Structures are given as structure tokens and as C-alpha cells.
Amino acid sequence: MARRSLLISGGEGQQMRGKLIVFEGVEGGGKTTQMQRVQVWLQSLTDAPVVMTREPGGTLLGQELRRLLLEYQEEEPIQDRAELLMYAADRAQHIEGFLKPLLYQGTIILCDRYTDSTIAYQGYGRGLDLSLIEQLNQIATQGLESDLTLWLDVDVEIGLARTRARGKIDRMEQANLAFHQRVQQGFQRLAEANPERIIKIDGTLNIDRVTEKIQLILSQKLIEWGLIL
Ligand SMILES: Nc1ncnc2c1ncn2[C@@H]1O[C@H](COP(=O)(O)OP(=O)(O)O)[C@@H](O)[C@H]1O
Ligand SMILES: Cc1cn([C@H]2C[C@H](O)[C@@H](COP(=O)(O)OP(=O)(O)O)O2)c(=O)[nH]c1=O
């Protein structure tokens, strides 16, 4: 495949020339593992910078919010609506201070979780009103949607077993199985409702097979976007 600079295919001025590729799914689906592999592979194909980031935690403020959101403490449980607003604050900061400037420069961004996680976890998982979450996502993102979302689908039990094997589990991972199953159902519904944007990948395959599948999907997208010939 021939490389092509993203800067050539983009327009002038304030046009967003980069691409936002999001990795989603329940805990332990393999997002982090695959993103690292995809970053190296994609960077070998294009002159455009390929950058990895995550929500929560893609900015300095976000790192603080991530700590508060994921640290387990019994004294004063975080209320569901406070949790929702903290994820939204992380996203607003991330988009304005990090994602948008890079997208204007033509960067390809690989982002670990985005708006669908809020719908799945706070909406389906916690049971907060979906239209309220959509409004909040709109406020935080100012309408910035992912160009492509790769949903690494694994059974909740498999994913949680993987994260437990990895070590200490965080506040969200400690939520009960029924919560995580509702989250999973959320991702399923989102994928059904957005077949163009969200592509499901079987995350139970071995690591190399998952990488191959992602590479195949991304190769087609890069051609479609005019980033490789
Ligand atoms: N396809 C896979 N098969 C088996 N284990 C995997 C697979 N993908 C990732 N893992 C392992 O599962 C754990 C969680 O993976 P990780 O990439 O951190 O997932 P996530 O970021 O989605 O939570 C890690 O220990 C990782 O090595
Ligand atoms: C972005 C986002 C994440 N989350 C949760 C999902 C995860 O449990 C946690 C942190 O995500 P993440 O770092 O992806 O955890 P892991 O790599 O272990 O899967 O935050 C929400 O509940 N709502 C959101 O909007």
C-alpha cells in the first residue's frame, strides 16, 4: 500500500483533516492491547501522526478525574449523576484541549472509549435517562463524532476474568455482574442502531487474529478516506 499524507488530502483553514478512531467495549475486551499494535502498524502506513489517547484521562484535568472516578473508597460513594457529570467534564476538556486541535492538524487519533461508553455505562448500566446523556454528550463533544468505532466484543465474564488476572480491579470493575451485563447490552443496542459507525469485532479470538481483523477493516477505511492509495 502506498502512503499518502493526510495533509495533502485535507482542505485549507479550519477543516478537520484528521480522523477519530474509537475503541469500545466492556472491561478486558483487549482495547489497550490492540490500540498499541494498531498505532505502530498505522504509523508505518501514513505520514500523518498517529496518536493514542483515552477517556477518562486524556488531559491533566482528565487524569485527576480518572483517579477520582476509578479509585475505590467506601466513605462517600459517588452518586450516579455526579459520576455522569465527571465523565462529561473529562470529555469536554479532552475535546477542546486535545482532540480538536490535533484533528485540525491532520492527526489520526486512536481513542480508548468515547461517547458510547457513557451511554452504555451510565445509561444502560446505571439506568440514567438516555436522552439526558445524549444531550450531555452533545454539550461535551460539540457534535464531534467518531469517524469509526471498533467494538471489541467479549462476554462480560471473560472480560472481567482477564482484568482480574491482570491485577487490582478499580471502582467500575467492582460493580456487580448484572451491571456489566446491562453495559454489554448497551453496546449491542448501540451497534445495532449505528451500523455505519460501529463495527463489531470478536474479542474472544486470539490476540493476533483480532489484530488482523482490525487491520483489514482499517485498511479499507484508510483507502475510503483517501489516506492510502
Ligand atoms: N484476544 C485476547 N485473548 C486473550 N487475552 C487477551 C486478549 N486481548 C487482551 N488480552 C489480555 O486481557 C487483559 C486485558 O486486556 P486489555 O487490552 O487491557 O483490555 P481493555 O483495555 O479492553 O480493558 C490483558 O492482560 C491482555 O493481555
Ligand atoms: C469514558 C467512560 C468510561 N467509563 C468507565 C469504563 C471503565 O470501567 C472505566 C475506565 O475505562 P478504561 O480505562 O477503558 O478501563 P479498562 O481499560 O479497564 O477497560 O471508565 C464510564 O463508565 N463512562 C464513560 O463515559
Automatic annotation (TrEMBL):
Binding-site residues, ATP: 25-32
Annotated GO biological process: dTDP biosynthetic process; dTTP biosynthetic process; dUDP biosynthetic process
Keyword annotations from UniProtKB, A to Z: ATP-binding, Kinase, Nucleotide biosynthesis, Nucleotide-binding, Transferase
Keyword Kinase: yes
GO molecular function: ATP binding; dTMP kinase activity
InterPro entries: P-loop_NTPase, Thymidylate_kin-like_dom, Thymidylate_kin_CS, Thymidylate_kinase
UniProt superkingdom: Bacteria
Limits of the Thymidylate kinase-like domain: 23-214
EC number: 2.7.4.9
The keyword ATP-binding is annotated on this UniProt entry: yes
GO CC list: cytosol
Catalysed conversion reaction: dTMP + ATP = dTDP + ADP
Pfam families tied to this protein: Thymidylate_kin (PF02223)
Family, similarity comment: Belongs to the thymidylate kinase family.
Biological function: Phosphorylation of dTMP to form dTDP in both de novo and salvage pathways of dTTP synthesis.
Official protein name in the record: Thymidylate kinase
Gene name tied to this protein: tmk
